[in-house]
Design brief:
Layout (H helix, E strand, L loop, with lengths): L5 E5 L14 H12 L5 E2 L4 E8 L2 E8 L7 H10 L7 E7 L7 E5 L7 H10 L5 E6 L9 H4 L6 H24 L1 H9 L10
Parallel strand pairs: 1-4, 1-5, 5-7
Antiparallel strand pairs: 2-3, 3-4, 6-7
Length: 199
Amino acid sequence: MADERWLIVGLGNPGPGYAGNRHNAGSMVADELAARIGGRFRAGKFRSVIAEGRLEGTPVTIAKPLTYMNESGGPVAGLRGYYHLDPAHVVVIHDELDLPFGTVRLKLGGGDNGHNGLRSVSAALGTREYYRVRVGIGRPPGRMDPAAFVLRDFSAAERKELPFLIDRAADATEALLATGLAAAQNAFHGEAPAPPGPE
């Protein structure tokens, strides 16, 4: 039988060339959470790196897939199976185009909204009923292709605000574990983010 362990996965693309991309917001939050538990990422099973410890008194495995975004599901499903976790003990942190930059939202289940990482995770888990921490990155300017936008680094103005956004998403993840979804949503959905200043 599973213990109360949670699997927290930060989505992104591997390698230094992608590290600052908007698409790697989930991975950045995973780094912050690992720092909070005093954990170091080490090579894990199922093409991932993991850090283990306790968050809000709860045992957690924080993972970053080493696959490209559209193949994130394999590592997530592998780790879920290894720890014998219910999908309702899986949290996926990801960038979200449909939220303004700086916004954090939490939800359970739902569609993938065109996000290749979520699509892969849902297919591999065989369910959409897992938690998501959605990190708002905003819409691309003008007619820029969203696929190109997510693979660009944050703008200079956004980079000034990024530490606050990463912190807030990490706080929201901790609140989800500590207080449950409804209370965490109440705490984090009410505040509007400050828009980034001029470039």
